[in-house]
Amino acid sequence: MLSKFIRLIGGDPNKKEIERLTAIAEQVNAFEPQFESLSDDALRAKTAEFRARLADGELLDEILPEAFAAVREASKRTLGLRHYDVQMIGGMVLHSGKIAEMRTGEGKTLVATLPVYLNALEGKGVHLITVNDYLARRDARWMGQIYDFLGMKVGVLQMAAVTENGKKAFVVDFSKESPREDQDRLRQVDRAEAYAADITYGTNAEFGFDYLRDNMVYRLENKVQRGHHFAIVDEVDNVLIDEARTPLIISGPAQGDLEWYGRMSLIVRQLAPEDYEIDEKDRNAILTEVGTAHVEQLLGQPLRDPERPEDITPEQARLLGYLEQAMRAQFLFKRNKDYIVQGGKVVIVDEFTGRLMPGRRWSDGLHQAVEAKEGVKVEPENITYATITLQNYFRMYKKLAGMTGTALTEAEEFSKIYKLDVLPIPTNLEYQSARADAPLVEVKDRDQDGYQVVYFSRSDDKEKKPLFWRRTDYPDLVYRTVEAKLRAIAFDILRNHIIGRPVLVGTTSVDNSEKLSGRLRAETVRRLLQVQLMRRAWFEGNKKEEDGRLYKELEPLYRSLDEIDPGFLRQFAKPLNASINPEEPANLAKLLDILHLDEEHTARLKAVIQAGIPHSVLNARKHTEESQIIAGAGAFGAVTIATNMAGRGVDIKLGGEIAEEVTIAVSRVLKRAGHEDPYDMRPEEQRQALLKLPAADFGIYEAEVRMFLQYFDDMEQVRKLGGLHVVGSERHEARRIDNQLRGRAARQGDPGSSRFYLSLEDDLMRLFGGQQVNDVMQRFKLDDDLPLENRIVSGIIEGSQHRVEGSNFDVRKHLLEYDDVLNAQRARIYGQRDRVFSKENLHEDVLEFLKTETELRIPPAMKDEQGPWKLLAWLEQIQPTILMMDGELFPSYTFRLLLDELDPQNLQETTLSLVRRALQAEHEHHLRAIQAGIEAAEPALEAQIEERESLVDTFLEGLADAEEQRRPQEILDELSALVHLPIRLNNEQLRALLNAPASLEETIKDQIVAQISAVAITRQVAGLAMRLGEPLTLKEDLSRLEWADASRRINELAAELFAKRYESLAGEKGQLIRELEILLARPDAQKRDESTAIRILNTLPLVRRQIGFDNKTHRAQTQDYIRFHYSYLAAQLLDGRDANWVQADVLEHLENALESLEETWGAVQFAQRAQNAASLADFGPAAGILELDLQATSLAALSEEQLGALKKELGARHLTEIFRSVLLKAISEQWVDYLTRVEALRVSIGLEAYGQRDPLVQYKTKASEMFQNLLRDIRSAVVSNMFLYRPRPAVAQASEAPVEAVAAKPKAETEEQAAKSGRKRHKKR
Predict the structure, then answer these.
(1) Cβ atoms of 294 and 275 closer than 8 Å
(2) Can you tell me the distance from the alpha carbon of 622 to that of 230, in angstroms, rounded to the nearest whole number?
(3) Which of 160, 240, 637, 651 sits most deeply, having the most CB atoms within 10 A of its CB?
(4) Would you give the end-to-end CA distance of the chain in angstroms?
(5) How many CB atoms are closer than 10 A to CB 34?
(6) DSSP readout, 252-275?
(7) d(CA 322, CA 326)
């Protein structure tokens, strides 16, 4: 309404914009004579000239007229194509960052060359996005001739399967020829080289996946893209609307319980209609209360509390997730419509384009649910490593443009989401006829059926003969039933096929394509014609006219053709004295009359009756044959059924397509006949040249020449018949898709028409009022063969489509608000990765991480009632002892504290004393922990017992009031299930359960107390065994004791066992005393320095135990165990210390550790490079610190001070590379985990609505909190790994040998140690 008002008071803004751009097109035209006079070299030199002018400050808009003129001239010289003025206008629209809506056949591929060349002059790269790999290759080679002539390079991206998993790509190279289309004139190169070209062609997925892969690499040189400067998207509505929410995902398999998908699939199949409700609009399936009870019965467990549906356990949430997807798979996702099963796999069919999408999977378990439904192998859910939707990817471009034939219906969405305006561009014919001095004039007329037709004739033609045509869009025909609609479609196809007019039939699903294809088989066509003959015979026999009324006697003929057999038809024909044989002369005459055909069509009619209607089916199953099918869709008599024509990118030409081998043969004939360059002649020019040649000159190519000439005859014949006729079998929910289907007809002024056939049973009609119209038709008893034909009906349907489009837009717009949260976070994370790549020195960043992490951990650790042993365990893990280049050791912080307790002069005695203190401190800690565990378990134990006893009371009271007689064992089983414990009763007690249940109350409760207590006691004993580090063999069964007695006994037993352990290890004859003597007697321990002490302290806790025997190698299998820990004693040494002092001491220690690592790496790097170094230049950038002539200075000429500085710089640089690797790995791994968590949040956030909270607001809040946790996790991961990369020990002691960096692995830990350290364990990916 607003747009109409604006046009009323201010004129059509689109028309004004076209007029403005026309003036610029005139400027381009003014340059044409000048550029035509240039030599090839001079024209090619214009590219360098334009770039120089841009470098001097000129703007692209200022050189646009000349640049467009250069492209037009290059196109004329290379392709023989001249850009029309209207194509110039389209190029300007694209350059301005808008969408150019140009109808099919108006040369969008050629239009794009203008803005592509102009923007490529800036040297920042231009991306042209196509809908498939074939079009990317075709357009790059075709238009690449223009770019190559003007001195620009063209890159081509292709799917990962043919490019070494996305590592390679292609550049257009006209010197490389190949018989294979997918390699012809394409040279394979590294992916980055294709992006480094001036212009890069590829599909949306390839550009998006490369962006994700670039943000997963660990080396800057492995990135391939160089930014997002300018992109032109072909079929922009298909990419930015239909596939906008399609996520590009790089993932890997994850662990999951796949069995539940199969179990839920079986359960869903047992549901009755009253168990669920289907919402087709939102594609949801919802359980009713009855259904919930039914599923709980089948599962044998509750799904949720009916009083508080939002309060569910994690297990219930998991089961509900499986159930929801199983219901959607069973009731909403249909085979051969939403997906097909191919090669034992479920393959998605794109809803809008009908294309197969192999490799793509529905998320949230839906794909697994469909696999379980179809009985194919259920593949596991994947972990997402990186993801982005196409919508969010294309919003990153600084300038974005698009072109398509249908965008105006989605103009609001393009504007609000992508900031893209849509400008409809008139066709060349419309543009030419609208000019003041137009050579063409538009004429309106009526055809033989009274429908309006519009065509163009020459303005000086007084007879107004048609020269070019507008497409005729007939009103929709609406039938009551699908069967009546299919018959009408078959009749329309039949009539046009017989006269030779090509027909394109559009459907909305693979299933509908197959059904319609079945209607064109010989048997079905024959049955259809027989029914029509019987219908005509009935009206003639009963002397009635076909006035649209429904006659009861004819109703049996309106059943599905599959249900009507010849026997029935013969019985129907008998009282009418009619024959059902359609090939009889009399019946053929009737059929010609019914089909409005002439006698000359009799032979083709008979052929159809005998063999059916030959046709091709273009759908997801025949995706690879798309180009060949489309090429023949405009041929004489061709019938093509297409799932959808959205984004096909291939024109349908009247008369069909000429095979390449035919055109080559024609060119050879003309070359031999004396034509200088027949390859550059247009097809019509070649035709005229051939007609002038005698047939003898055709030689061995006579057959090909005849085919070539026949092609033109067929094209003329098809034009006379009315051109391509488009039949729509159902309205799509998007008007744009219908318009794309219509747009296939009347290409570039060819004649053509379109008509949609609908039924009140179609999805769109059912959802938007079809039932009311159906009721009216039945009330007035209208014949099923009578359609509603009214443009008002079409308007109502388009209004319904408009509502659906608006609803879909609202959904996408709302989802975009969720996306923006993750987009901002993704930008920040990827920005951090880029900074890690680009920053030369990362030492300050790493030290800041250390400072922040220790500030967060140390104050609470010093306040811990159990002491700071967890802090020390964490420090031990992140910074183990470091082996230096000279064999010396740099201690961990725990060892640093312990070393202060040792006397090097009396190492044996002080070490033994320290070990005994460490054992004592650990034992005391374990005893306190065991007591605390018992105290914590007691309230939980009492609560469990009280709960079960309450259940027993209720159950027994119910038995006393029950009137129904039941078997005692059945009652006992019910009671056991209720309390989740096996209750055992003897025969006498079973009888009492039936007659006097109250008498068994004490017996049953005693069993419950005993069993629950036994479980709790067993857990405490297992905990004691774990702390001892070895299995327990007890003489008494503690689980038979009461809880109080068992608790006391466990404490006593713990004290006894730890005392025995202490005596065994550190008593007068303990193992550690003997081992310490052996260690001190070794030659390498005679130095009695700090490193010796560290080695001894590090060795004493370890013991090697045999865990098995390998029969193959005949060797014992052993494993190292840690017998005791120093962290509890070290924690005591910190008691009483101020947190600030500890913070400063720890940070100083870790900084010293980094300096030691730097020194060690410097020595290793120097040793490696010095072996073959001829001069300082061989030491790389690090040698620059000496400020000497690198080429002339040898290593021998350096002083000790200079050597020290060089080693230090080498170490610093190498350590920076280690930090870089650690940072990138931490960011990548934590981001992967975060994506999984944030997706789970997005799925579950809808439950917030139960609490009257806005899900979006809650999502933003929680996602922000999660992102802060992500940053903390990244920092923690960096700190945990930064000290672990060290030279190999064996290499570090051999200064001459090359050294390889490896990540040091901490010693094997018990689960207790992992808990102490607070470290997260991640599954290997």
Answers:
(1) yes
(2) 34
(3) 240
(4) 56
(5) 11
(6) EE----THHHHHHHHHHHT--GGG
(7) 6
